[in-house]
Amino acid sequence: MSMSNIPLAAGAGPMPLTHRWNNFDALRMGAALLVLVSHQFSLTGRSEHGLFEVHSWGGVAVLIFFSISGFLVAQSWDNDPRPHTFMARRLLRVWPALAVAVVLSACVLGPLIGSMSWQEYVHDPFFRRYFRILRFKNELFLPTGFDGNLLARVINGSLWTIPIEMKCYVLLAAIGTLGLLRPRWRWLVALLVLATAVGYLWPTPWRYGWSERRDMPLEFMLCFFAGVVCHHHRARTTGRAAWPLLVAAWAAGALAFAAGQQVLALVLWVPPTAIAFGTSAWPVVRRLGRFGDVSYGLYIYAFPTQQLMIWLFKDRLPWAMVLALSIGATLVLAFASWHLVEKHALRWKPRAPRQAAPVAPTALA
User: Fold this and answer.
1) Do 243 and 272 touch, CB atoms closer than 8 A?
2) 51, β-bridge pairs
3) Hey, is 51 helix, strand or coil?
4) What region holds the Acyltransferase domain (predicted)?
């Protein structure tokens, strides 16, 4: 794999990442589509052979999302390290499109595909509870909908990762406010991330039971903060300079894998590989974002679209055709979300106290 360096200003180190000079848009779009395809298996009762049988391919895609989100959001903090403006930017990126998706799901899609009258529907406790998603709570069920599907009443099973993402933002702001992202403390943060990964994910005899418990939110958060560490050491984690780190990470991951620790291997492999690819600038790949950053829309609209297509066509069309229809319809909704909601919300982002180079908008798992 040939990697291109991000263009350098004389003596200034890597330039801030913009859409024109990196593969992040393409990587996020690919990860969002991978989540969609992975869910198509579970939603139709088909067996999916995940990676090492510890993560579905959709789970691996979410690890990628968290890794690149940590990298890019850390740059946003560096540009303007004020907690209130940092969190305002994060909310403006996440909440408006999420609110539209939740309202459309609960108030439009739910009644159309359900078996209740409107009066019964809106007075059902599950209808009111569904809007707790807008407070970053996990809610899966509406009062009715998608009868006959394997996951009846589950409108959007992808949104459970968004509260985890928000917790990562809060933790990053807290760590930054305490001064632990300053240069002299960054290696300490890196060591803490590595120690947490090894200590939690590598079973030891005296921690049997706790160590056997899978904690996917922690795995996602470890990838997020690994991305943060990669940003703070980006001179070694981007472009051609990333090769020594990649070799070391893959060697360490191979040792973990050989010892039977597949999850730890993934946490060691995914973040540096995703960052190295994302910060590269391949001529065709880097241009996929010129139509807009549709990855978030793909993520939040894929699941309900798939449920609808399966509900309508599962007994009429082949599996691959239903998948193709789901991808096409989700792409339309994602483009609409970006052009009608997301990019307009981003115009309200607080300005940094000094002129800073633009940061590519972050994407969610």
Assistant:
1) no
2) 55
3) strand
4) 22-336
Residue 150 lies in a domain: no
pLDDT of residue 35: 97
Contact 73, 169 (CB under 8 A): yes
Q: Can you read off the two tokens belonging to residue 213?
A: 């418990």
- pLDDT tens readout for residues 37-86: 999 999 999 988 877 778 899 999 999 999 999 999 999 999 999 999 99
Contact call for residues 151 and 161 (beta carbons, < 8 A): no
- The residue range of the domain holding 47 is 17-109+159-346
- What DSSP assignment string belongs to 68-99? HHHHHHHHHHHH---HHHHHHHHHHHHHHHHH
**Residue 154: phi, psi to the nearest 5?**
-90, 110
Residues near 335 by beta carbon (within 8 Å), at least 6 away in sequence: 291, 292, 294, 297
Check: CB of residue 187 under 8 Å from CB of residue 33.
no
Q: Which helix (H) or strand (E) holds 169?
A: helix 161-177
Name the residue among 64, 59, 52 with its Cα closest to residue 257. 52
Q: Are residues 222 and 267 in contact, defined by beta-carbon separation less than 8 angstroms?
A: yes
Domain-embedded: residue 49: yes
Query: Considering the domain boundaries, does residue 241 fall inside one?
Result: yes
3-state secondary structure of 365: coil
State the total domains in the chain.
1
Q: Rounded to two decimals, what is the model's pTM?
A: 0.86
Kindly write down the DSSP assignment for every residue of 128-139, as one continuous string: HHHGGGGGT---
Measured CA to CA in angstroms, residue 323 lies from 44, 154, 275 at distances of 10, 18, 29
Q: Which two tokens stand for residue 262?
A: 């597949």
The answer to whether residue 176 sits within a structural domain is: yes
| Nearest CA-CA partner of 158 in 38, 70, 325 | 38
End-to-end Cα spacing for the chain: 26
